[in-house]
Design goal:
7 helices
């Protein structure tokens, strides 16, 4: 739940145009004191740290080393000058980590279909089929999708909160 909540916060920031890979944002977050940081920067830093703590708690237990935080930040979150492709890849890694955590917590088996959602979007044959996939947990907030509408056209979308 913590991972999903914080990822939704990160998605909202991104939709508002916040980009932590921009040199100005990254440098500001790294060197400015709290009073000099924007609200979006503070929110991003808090959501990122909380997401990482939730993810590492299961792997590391009670004691999480600072190096583990640093490694997770680099693995899952945009770094200075990351390309759009790398930023999207890291976003999808976070989504997959969240799915894996959910499946572990619920004792469910991770199906290959879950991992296929990280590839290009699945094309659903109807909007009803798309809605069923979301209801069944095959799509999460932030996932891209496509479906064929009543006119036979492919409609692109992204699952929004």
């Amino acid at each position: 739940g913590r991972m999903r909540y914080n990822d939704q916060v990160l998605d909202r920031l991104e939709r508002r145009g916040f980009n932590p890979a921009k040199i100005s944002e990254s440098v500001s977050m790294a060197i400015l004191p709290e009073i000099g940081k924007t609200a979006d920067q503070k929110l991003y830093i808090a959501a990122r740290a909380n997401w990482v703590a939730a993810n590492l708690r299961k792997e590391s237990g009670a004691a999480i080393a600072e190096s583990e935080y640093e490694g997770a930040f680099n693995q899952y979150f945009p770094l200075i000058n990351d390309s759009d492709e790398i930023i999207e890849f890291k976003r999808r890694l976070r989504k997959q980590a969240e799915r894996d955590m959910r499946d572990a917590a619920m004792g469910t088996h991770v199906s290959s279909e879950e991992y296929e959602t990280l590839a290009p979007p699945t094309i659903y044959q109807s909007k009803a089929e798309l809605e069923k996939a979301y209801a069944d947990g095959k799509l999460s907030i932030g996932d891209s999708y496509q479906y064929i509408n009543e006119s036979g056209q492919i409609v692109d979308g992204k699952v929004e909160p």
